[in-house]
Design brief:
single chain; 249 residues; alpha/beta; seven-stranded mixed β-sheet; four-stranded antiparallel β-sheet; 7 helices; 11 strands; 34% strand
Length: 249
């Protein structure tokens, strides 16, 4: 299961992600909404870094993720955050089941690519549409086909004082899936000993046309594409594309 071992050192390996900048970008899109954005679902919230930033900015946050280990980190991180402390749900995207409606849903850091079965992604889009209020916003980003295919054969190293990760990528053009093979070493505080874990992650390369079709089939309208943290259309060869879509009023 992805993120079982990595969860404990995920934040250390992603210290270069500027969550405040991501939140700024999301808020600019929120500001364009006719529907006032108050209640926000952070779908595939991971360790809750973005959830916390948005909660501290006054949004009523719900985080949902498939990994119990990541959710445990998120719950600890978001304790006491914001006027209203975020709540967290252990759910797969395609099985999303909320207690009520939401004004917006965000799904960031290529989490959509992690849904490698197109049928499940279509179901996930339908579930988001179900729980959005009329006029509500769905915003997500994806790694592009160009980016994932270019990773084939690459080897990467992430290192901190108490964690070390070597990972290699293989891209299958037939499956359109990029597989990451990870070897992780983590220093345990109590014992002072290093633990070793292995994880396998997969991301599917979806074309913008496919994603637009899935959104349309789920009932979304006003579907737009943007460059990486930009408010302009994506340029050819862009590594990351953002999508916004709305539920019809």
């Amino acid at each position: 299961m992805a993120y079982e071992f990595l969860a404990g050192c995920y934040d250390a390996f992603t210290a270069d992600v500027h969550y405040a900048r991501w939140a700024d970008y999301l808020e600019k899109h929120f500001a364009r909404s006719r529907l006032p954005i108050r209640t926000v679902l952070d779908l595939a919230c991971g360790t809750g870094s973005l959830t916390r930033v948005l909660a501290e900015r006054g949004y009523e946050m719900i985080g949902a993720d498939l990994s119990q280990e990541m959710l445990a980190q998120a719950a600890e991180k978001c304790r006491g955050a914001g006027p209203l402390e975020p709540i967290f749900l252990h759910q797969a995207m395609e099985e999303l089941d909320l207690y009520g409606t939401i004004d917006a849903c965000v799904c960031c850091l290529d989490s959509v690519n992690y849904v490698t079965d197109p049928k499940k992604l279509k179901q996930a889009f339908q579930r988001v549409h179900t729980f959005l209020l009329p006029g509500g916003l769905f915003l997500f980003d994806v790694n592009t086909v160009e980016k994932l295919s270019a990773l084939d054969g690459q080897v990467f190293l992430d290192e901190t004082e108490d964690a070390y990760c070597v990972w290699r990528a293989e891209y299958s053009r037939r499956r359109r899936v990029c597989t990451y093979f990870m070897d992780i070493f983590r220093l345990e505080e109590e014992s002072g000993l290093w633990e070793r874990g292995e994880e396998l992650h997969e991301e599917r390369a979806y074309t913008p046309e496919e994603l637009t079709s899935y959104l349309r089939d789920a009932g979304f309208t006003q579907i737009k594409q943007y460059g990486n943290l930009k408010h302009r259309p994506p340029k050819p060869g862009e590594d990351r594309i953002f999508f916004t879509a709305r539920k019809e009023v």
